[in-house]
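As agreed, record copied across for absentees:
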Amino acid sequence: MAAEKSEIVRKAEILIAETMCGRDASHDAAHAFRVRDVALSLAKEEALSPSSLEIVELAALLHDIGDYKYTKDFVEDTTIIEKFLKEEGLDESKREKILSIIKNMGFKNEVACASFSNSLEFCIVQDADRLDAIGAIGIARCFIYGGSKNHVMYDPEIPPREDLTKEKYTMKDAKTTIINHFHEKLFKLKDLMKTKAGKRRAERRHKFMEDYLLEFHMEWDGRA
């Protein structure tokens, strides 16, 4: 039997549904709910203390509200999250932990080799978000987001970008393709997982993507 949701979690779900409404399906409310569910599952496997579950659940739910890809100025914005957590009366130490997770968990920060504390809560939420970026759902999300930005599906004349910096990765009008995103990010995530549970799950999803891309290129080249 599922545990009863707390009031703040119920309100967070409503906030997500309202603020992420109208986004493409790669970063919508359903994505946030999936990340929350995977994070709680990973937390159980990693034997996370019950006192930390609220931090994990709220960080997972709220992590993409201020995603830079959907803000007016293409800059990360946690204003709505900060206001929500404060108005709900969450104690300061929990607010700080949740915001620290959200601000530092992105792939762009790892590309930048940014240093921050890898608490178990952080690792669980980050792994959950990355698991949703790979495998069958990850492939679907990749094509949905790329299509929403009118990115070319594949062009053998446009190679994947190498030695990505944070600036290059977040460049709004970078010349790339949807298939290149597999090489620039998705195939790298398996080796960036931080929890044992996340690493185990990533293996299967990673293999699925490898098989998919082999089939894609066979069909593209007329060999299948």
Observations:
- The radius of gyration is 18 Å.
- The chain has a mean pLDDT of 93.
- Residues 130 and 211 are 19 Å apart (CA to CA).
